[in-house]
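Researcher: Let's try something more involved. This one mixes different molecule types, so please make sure each is placed in the same coordinate frame as the others.
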Amino acid sequence: MTSTPLVALVGNPNAGKSALFNALTGARQKVGNYPGVTVERHSGKLVLPDGRIVELVDLPGAYSLEPSSPDERVTRDVVTGAQIGERLPDALIVVVDASNLDNHLRFALQLIALGLPVVVALNMIDLAARDGLTLDPVKLSAELGVPVIPTVAVRRRGLDEVKATLSGLIVESAAIRLRPSDPAIGEDIVTLQRRARKIALGATVSEAPVRRWTHALDAVALHPVWGVLLLMVILFTMFQAVFSWATVPADAISAGIAWAQESIRATLPDTPLRSLLTDGLLAGVGAVIVFLPQILILFAFILVLEASGYMVRAAFLMDRVMASVGLSGRAFIPLLSSFACAVPGIMATRTIEDEKDRLTTILIAPLMTCSARLPVYTLVIGALIPDRHVLPFVGLQGLVMFALYIMGLVGAFVVALVLRRTVTAGVSSGFMMEMPKYQMPRLRDVAIGLWSRAEIFLKRAGTTIALTIVLLWVLASYPVAPAGQKQSEYSIAGRIASGIEVVVRPIGFNHDIALALLPAMAAREAAVGAIATVYSIDNPDDPRGDNQLRRNLQARWSLPTALAFLMWFVFAPQCISTIAVTRRETNGWKWPAFMVGYLFALAYIAAGATYWAAIGLGL
Amino acid sequence: MKPPLSLESLPQRQCATVATIDWSHLSTPEARRLRELGFDEGVGVEVLHRASLGKGPIACRIGRMTVALRRAVAGAIFVSPVAQ
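Model: All components are placed in one shared frame. Result:
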């Protein structure tokens, strides 16, 4: 009995590899990790025409077998059988972009030279045709010495032929498989490139000047004035959408949770279990799940911007601004993703080749206002900032929210500037990027991406956040306070909070906030759940829901305290996942410790300054 | 002999071929990436867009691919214009 054969999808970035992977495996995908590195391992099952099942793994895009980033290293190690925790593939599907053969064939030649069975997918052949490029796959196949199948991944063309070819390539007897030859003993890159160009030229039947469509769009998108304006409009629309489109589904989720709480209250007797379910789990986890629509909308925008090819244009436009603080335009993509969540943002820094540059980007990523801060901001602003207009169409609440975002951005730039002159000093790194063709994002690919994000978020809400909330509920409920004493102060959690309060009192924080800070370490949005849970326990007879929570805040928090609390959340490293991913990405505790230290210091100073300034202004 | 023209100063939309690349001006990773993106003597190039009038990056065509480069790197690539 041998294990399932393994087939690896390899190719240059922008060859349409992921689209081909999605088309071949559909929704039956698994996202894991390679041991020791944080590179995601995407795999799926593929059924061959002869009924055999093979595992298909989508390797990170690379330009050659000489890695210049952790992602590319995994690609090289897998195809050479050197990757720990991965078996040597039984065959490779080498994906090349039909309209960019000169370049993609070079990597294909390197891969073919490894000696593994190979089928070449001549992908996006339709776009090449649209550009007036006619290719001869038969001739190409003869030159390369391996089967070449024209494919259009997004239209599912050529998939059956790829599968049929694969079943011929994968021989059952694993015994005759050889270890591939050492990639170091190969031709140098220039020779390979020249050979690739010759083969590409030979396989080209006719050629028209390159893609006018993309150039016409780029004339606007990369324009020094219109391009920047367009980027601003896109970003504005994105943030606007996050706030306005999410209202309806979020309200529906709130209503559902309130209904569940009422039903439990109506059916169960008044026991600690009922309190745990309603005041603990439903109040706490519910307060977090409400933000799923906002997070999905934000991710949808980011996925569409990536898939359409626009993201690289944004990086191009931002390069100059980024260069002024010692970063590269490439850092823009991870930083923009960090507005959704710093964890994928920090993982996205893997495409930055320069180590110092990458480290700086990782260290400032938590300053981007992630979606987990939204619940906190929304609640506190809604409760304590007056809902009035400062200008026509400009509400004070919206303005405060905007200011918090800007504060994070300005903080990030200043920190980057300082870091690049001190701890991460070094020559400014370059910016060299391939700009892919524009493409219509496929609904299916975006949906698959969104689904995996939703899964991660719900899993977190169901595990980390739920556990934190239950733990907090236990600590906040026991020991039971005698009559006349507040439960939130008498309980174990209350006493811990009283200890924290000593430290945070000078920056205007009260006992409630001290209590919320600990669970917020598990996940920022848990602060909202924690506050809701504590008030629920203190006043079990209060009506439930957002309005009551808001009234409680209004009664217990002063405006300077609320402003200090908001400032704290702009800077504080309130999220274990971010710290954990930073540790993994930087291979040690040094940088996460540094990050936590500087962020807490900034948060403390900023919150304190805000509090005393607000008091001084008589707010 | 005409003074050498770099990709940085090549007029927009003027087709050219790479004459020579001054590798000594580039860091090792930069040089490797540049080779991987297909920059080599004799290859056709063209400047498509400039991010801003000042110091922003440029987008250029190399083969059938569009690549973004910083000006310092483009300045190390010398080209000979092709009559159109």
